[in-house]
Specification:
globular; alpha+beta; 188 residues; three-stranded antiparallel beta sheet; 3 helices
Length: 188
């Protein structure tokens, strides 16, 4: 019995060390934290700072919680062009200064950064060499979507998101009722 317990403790220790090492590989040049959440300055023209993790996760290499667009109170009773702070999950859960990125911020990340596929996701490197990791998934689930705060004006039942697969990442529209991840951004 002692041998079995020792092996379980050893296995757990190896797994924990591996997870720690994998997660630290993709947090490059963390510039600051606010409300116990870290962000990275990628050197983007807009000055947008990207969170190192999704809402609902504390590790870059893990998927966070899923949210329906703007559904913080249980009903959709508005049609703004941009999600108001009162219905923004990033502002609600992480606090002042955090918000769901706009469609334009996702486009900037897509167009101004280098995307390199690694195991289970993309290392996204900004013009200044700093990077974040966007989790895609494992063999069974190799896709991830992240909401923007931008409504699709011509079709208000949909909002913009980024759809990410291995070898593919594009800005697409999705029905607001779809549960999707959120990668917050920080702006003072």
């Amino acid at each position: 019995m002692k041998k079995k317990s020792f092996l379980l403790v050893l296995l757990f220790g190896i797994m924990a060390a591996t997870c720690f090492a994998l997660n630290n590989d993709y947090i490059a040049a963390i510039n600051a934290s606010d409300n116990d959440h870290e962000y990275v300055d990628l050197g983007l023209p807009s000055g947008t700072k990207w969170a190192t993790c999704d809402i609902g996760s504390d590790m870059p290499r893990a998927r966070g919680s899923l949210f329906k667009w703007g559904l913080m109170s249980g009903t959709y009773n508005f049609n703004p062009d941009i999600l108001p702070a009162s219905l923004d999950a990033a502002a609600t859960y992480w606090g002042k200064g955090w918000h769901i990125p706009t469609k334009e911020q996702w486009e900037e990340l897509k167009d101004k950064c280098t995307w390199t596929f690694k195991t289970n996701g993309y290392e996204v490197t900004g013009p200044n060499g700093n990077s974040i990791f966007l989790f895609v998934g494992d063999e069974a689930s190799n896709c991830c979507m992240y909401w923007s705060s931008s409504l699709k004006i011509e079709e208000p039942t949909s909002a913009w998101c980024i759809l990410i697969f291995k070898g593919f990442y594009e800005i697409e529209d999705m029905p607001r009722s779809n549960p999707i991840c959120i990668r917050p951004v920080w702006e003072e």
